[in-house]
Amino acid sequence: MQTELILAGFGGQGIMFAGQVLSYAAMDIGKQVTWIPSYGPEMRGGTANCTVVISDEEIGSPVVKNPDIALVMNLPSLDKYEPLVKPGGMLVINESMVDRSARRTDIKVISIPCSEIAEQIGNIRLANMVAVGALLSGLDVLTVADVEAALMAHMPGRHRHLLSKNIEAVHRGYEYAKAHAVVTR
Amino acid sequence: MARELWEGNQAIAEAASRVGLEAYFGYPITPQNEILEWMSRRLPELGRAFVQAESELGAINMVYGAACTGARVMTSSSSPGISLMMEGLSYIAGTEVPMVLVNVMRGGPGLGNIAPSQADYNQICKGGGHGDYHPIVLAPASVQEAVDLMPVAFDLAEKYLNICCILIDGSIGQMMEPVELPEMRPVQRKDFPWAVTGAKGRPRRILSSIYLDPPEEEKTNLRLLRRWQEVQEKELRYKEYFTDDADFIVIGFGTAGRVALSAVRAARAQGIKVGLFRPITVAPFPYKRVAELAQRVGAFLVVEMNAGQMLEDVRLAVNGSIPIEFYGRLGGVVPFPDEILSEIQRVAKAKLSADADPIANWMKRMEMVAR
């Protein structure tokens, strides 16, 4: 089985790290995984996205046109990736940063105010982990416990004091998504 | 060893440090800066030499000097930087000293861009610098394969007194995959009979690429060629997928090869009997194996991230015996699997001719793709 994800947003929103957390979790449960970034020459403020492929066998292409799941953290990313999600797939939208709802009716849509939830936890920069939690609600291959274990095992030393907040953010995102998922299929 | 998630560039740098790299000389250029960056921290920590040179010319000539002492030495760069190194590379080839070069290709020609490309296949596989010489070129398609080929590259360079190049594109340099790295080995300087290490107590050794007497230069050229013939006989590497019962076969190296694997699997799921041949040594090119496969299948579909550079080697191997089709993306564009799948579906149904010009036909189809 193979699962293909695209995570997209502005540079600085933690999109690359969110993809890496999922990759670490997949690796640690014995899967094959690829993480590949795509961003403009600018580091912050520009658009950034990464593609994560999780598989049971040797992964061919690390690049994906039509993902099973897209996580979009801002409006340009919603406009770009909503049409590309596979029919029957899932779209996670950070509704704090977009001013419209999803148009697709053949996919599962989770719209979640990641930035507001992150602020409630105490740091707006946790919005990426709230989004990861929401995404996990529709990702069969990984559990919240897998991601929690990956965060504990791989979070760099300089960020370790933020570990419990990150884990809390994942849980809050997951719970919100479970309660609010809109399935229009 | 446990698997760890590594970015390609950093994994290559760490693997080289673990298999006895003594000195690295380089100059920054995207998309391979993480190699230089990793080395700048790691090598001093290990008590080895790291120098950020003043330019690519400086870097390659420092490599030349260090290689003459018999040290394990390497540099890395990307397309425009590699062009700047060509003079030094030719001198290194002419002096018959070993070195490893990592070339993380990007879109070109000229300054081009920083996106993944395979457009420097001809430059690196066919020598690049002046004079008759052949670098050994290995083209991994994943981070693990790149890591596994690092010790191989040093061993080949030292065995055949040659340049060995790891040829990848920016996507393999910057993607992350789980890898198992080699164990840390101590530096083991080999006692090469040619190395210049100080002549105290022994006759002087002289290393040079100057042979002012043409018959002496001719002897040198023949010596290089004899070594190259041995490389061609003994050092070919490639990987085959679903080739046993294939009606036709896709051929691609590096990233194009692994993207094609997804397309080949999707085609198989639709009942199309297609295989994949992925050369790992692109110089020497596995001509003989490709010729053998050409006797068993109806056609080849060559897929590259360039305008058909390896295609010429495939045509040489096939020698007109079966039709060859081509699909390429250029300028830093990476093909998606569905593009290659459509090509596979087209080839499966089309009436093909061995006389057709694969480039001309592909260009006609490209007019629809890239407007």
Key terms for this structure?
heterodimer, A: 185 residues, Pyruvate-ferredoxin Oxidoreductase, domain 3, 6 helices, 7 strands, 37% helix, B: 371 residues, alpha/beta, Rossmann fold, 2 domains, seven-stranded mixed sheet
What is the CATH third-level topology name of the largest domain in chain B?
Answer: Rossmann fold
Identify low-pLDDT runs of chain A.
none
Tell me, briefly, the overall form of chain A: globular
Order of helices and strands of chain B: EHEHEHEHEHEHEHEHEEHEEHEHEHH
Largest interface, C-beta within 8 A: A-B, 21 and 22 residues
N- and C-termini, Cα separation of chain B: 49 Å
Sheet with the most strands: spatial strand order of chain A: 2-3-1-4-5-6-7
Name the assembly state.
heterodimer
Q: Given the helix and strand composition of chain A, which structural class is it?
A: alpha/beta
How large is the count of helical segments of chain B? 13
Give a brief rundown of this model:
Chain A has 6 helices and 7 strands, in the order βαβββαββααααβ. With 185 residues, chain A is an alpha/beta fold. Chain B has 371 residues and is of the alpha/beta class.
